């Protein structure tokens, strides 16, 4: 029995939810998101809420029950409020800037890194050492933030590199004499 799956997803005002046989479409002020449904769950739209239930008692149906419910919840929150991730850059000479639709990163390499901003994602650089990734799709926001972080992840000795805001970097002690 899924504790997450049995809770219905409330649909706030300003969000429209359309249900077909194979997919669910959620529209809001920040865009439109579509989720393909699996054969293991049944989705119903009633009384201003979306209810997800498993088709049978198989292990796969039980697993997809809570997953589908949370994916729908993330879509509803995404089109109404949006998601954002903030990245911090630490290191001498490390910085980021927006140039048109590209994010230019200088991370201590002999060249600068051009990262094309994907459709549906907004990137802002308030300071040269602070990047904010925003969008309606939670998975896409997290993926873009992870890709930017992967260009130069934080190292354990001095903490130089790109890290999430609030992330704790486990530090190591340098070699001793």
List the helices and strands and how they pair.
Blueprint: E1 9-10, E2 16-19, E3 23-28, E4 31-36, E5 41-46, E6 49-54, H1 59-80, E7 83-90, E8 95-99, E9 102-106, E10 113-116, E11 121-127, E12 130-135, H2 138-150, E13 161-164
Antiparallel strand pairs: 1-6, 2-3, 3-4, 5-6, 7-12, 7-13, 8-9, 9-10, 11-12
Give the gist of this structure.
The chain has 177 residues and is an alpha+beta fold. The protein contains two helices and 13 strands, in the order ββββββαββββββαβ.
Classify the fold: give the CATH topology of the largest domain: Outer Surface Protein A, domain 3
Question: Strand count, sense and closure of the main sheet?
Answer: 4 strands, antiparallel
Radius of gyration: 21 Å
Structural class: alpha+beta
Mean pLDDT: 92
For this structure, what is the CATH class of the largest domain? Alpha Beta
CATH architectural label of the largest domain: Alpha-Beta Complex
User: Ends: how far apart?
Assistant: 58 Å
The main sheet orders its strands as 11-12-7-13
Q: Provide the low-confidence segments as ranges.
A: none
Shape: elongated
Work out the strand percent.
35-45%
Q: Give the name of the CATH superfamily of the largest domain.
A: Ribosomal protein L6
* Total discrete domains: 2
Order of helices and strands: EEEEEEHEEEEEEHE
What is the count of DSSP helices, taking H or I runs of 4+ residues?
A: 2
Say how many strands there are: 13
């Amino acid at each position: 029995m899924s504790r997450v799956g049995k809770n219905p997803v409330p649909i706030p005002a300003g969000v429209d939810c359309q249900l077909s046989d194979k997919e669910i479409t959620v529209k809001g002020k920040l865009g439109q998101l579509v989720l393909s449904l699996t054969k293991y769950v049944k989705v119903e739209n009633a009384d201003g809420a979306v209810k997800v239930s498993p088709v049978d008692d198989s292990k796969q149906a039980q697993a997809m029950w809570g997953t589908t419910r949370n994916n729908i919840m993330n879509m509803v929150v995404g089109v109404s409020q949006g998601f954002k991730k903030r990245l911090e850059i630490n290191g001498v000479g490390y910085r980021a800037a927006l140039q048109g639709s590209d994010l230019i990163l200088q991370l201590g390499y002999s060249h600068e890194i051009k990262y094309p901003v994907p459709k549906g994602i907004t990137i802002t650089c308030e300071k040269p050492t602070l990047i904010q990734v925003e969008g309606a799709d939670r998975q896409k926001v997290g993926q873009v933030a992870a890709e930017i972080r992967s260009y130069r992840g934080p190292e354990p000795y001095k903490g130089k590199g790109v890290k999430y805001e609030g992330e704790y970097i486990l530090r190591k002690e340098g070699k001793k004499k």
